[in-house]
């Protein structure tokens, strides 16, 4: 049975998620505090990968330390690779974080990563490479969809027209999906369709 742990990290209170299933772990958006994240992973658990919903500094700050600890691959959308290495475009407040570890690329659709099988949905708008990551009835939305809100579109790579297209995709998804956003509390697709003013 899968389990999801949350570490709220960094200046923007980013949600880092640890998705655990059958002794394996995927780390989603480790924005900071590598040691805290490591402390939430049991010694007998295997870290299969780090998954990045997008490339902003507040979602990537602990990546290199975790790769050093677990020697695991890092996945991101191709369109956000530049954000990982260029701190002048991945920040909103002058804070610096980059990823020096090698990265692999998401492809849309079913994707097997370690012991996990994900549905990968590209959802630009907040950045060009924003990615929704679905595992069973769990949907990790990064900064695309929040509890009764959406991510900013005024930063580098942001585009409100593309965001609207991404929201239309979300509207077609299973209403029972549990939403795990990049910031703030969890939700469901059903709640967002009913209460989020952007739908």
From TrEMBL:
<dbReference type="GO" id="GO:0046872">
    <property type="term" value="F:metal ion binding"/>
</dbReference>
<keyword id="KW-0479">Metal-binding</keyword>
<dbReference type="Pfam" id="PF00753">
    <property type="entry name" value="Lactamase_B"/>
</dbReference>
<protein>
    <submittedName>
        <fullName>Glyoxylase, beta-lactamase superfamily II</fullName>
    </submittedName>
</protein>
<keyword id="KW-0862">Zinc</keyword>
<dbReference type="InterPro" id="IPR001279">
    <property type="entry name" value="Metallo-B-lactamas"/>
</dbReference>
<dbReference type="InterPro" id="IPR051453">
    <property type="entry name" value="MBL_Glyoxalase_II"/>
</dbReference>
<feature type="domain" description="Metallo-beta-lactamase">
    <location>
        <begin position="13"/>
        <end position="183"/>
    </location>
</feature>
<dbReference type="GO" id="GO:0016787">
    <property type="term" value="F:hydrolase activity"/>
</dbReference>
<keyword id="KW-0378">Hydrolase</keyword>
<dbReference type="InterPro" id="IPR036866">
    <property type="entry name" value="RibonucZ/Hydroxyglut_hydro"/>
</dbReference>
């Amino acid at each position: 049975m899968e389990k999801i742990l949350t570490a709220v990290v960094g200046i923007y209170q980013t949600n880092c998620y640890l998705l655990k299933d059958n002794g394996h772990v995927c780390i989603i958006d480790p924005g900071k505090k590598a040691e805290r994240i490591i402390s939430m992973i049991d010694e007998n658990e295997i870290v299969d990968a780090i998954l990045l919903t997008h490339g902003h500094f507040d979602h990537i700050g602990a990546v290199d330390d975790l790769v050093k600890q677990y020697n695991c691959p890092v996945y991101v959308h191709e369109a956000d690779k530049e954000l990982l290495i260029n701190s002048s475009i991945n920040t909103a407040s002058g804070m610096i974080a980059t990823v020096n570890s090698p990265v692999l690329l998401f492809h849309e659709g079913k994707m097997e990563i370690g012991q996990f099988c994900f549905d990968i949905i590209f959802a630009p708008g907040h950045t060009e490479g924003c990615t929704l990551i679905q595992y069973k009835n769990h949907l990790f939305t990064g900064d695309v969809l929040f509890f009764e809100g959406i991510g900013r579109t005024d930063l580098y790579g942001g585009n409100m027209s593309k965001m609207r297209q991404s929201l239309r995709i979300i509207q077609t998804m299973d209403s029972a999906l549990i939403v795990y956003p990049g910031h703030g509390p969890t939700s469901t697709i059903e709640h967002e369709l009913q209460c989020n003013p952007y739908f």
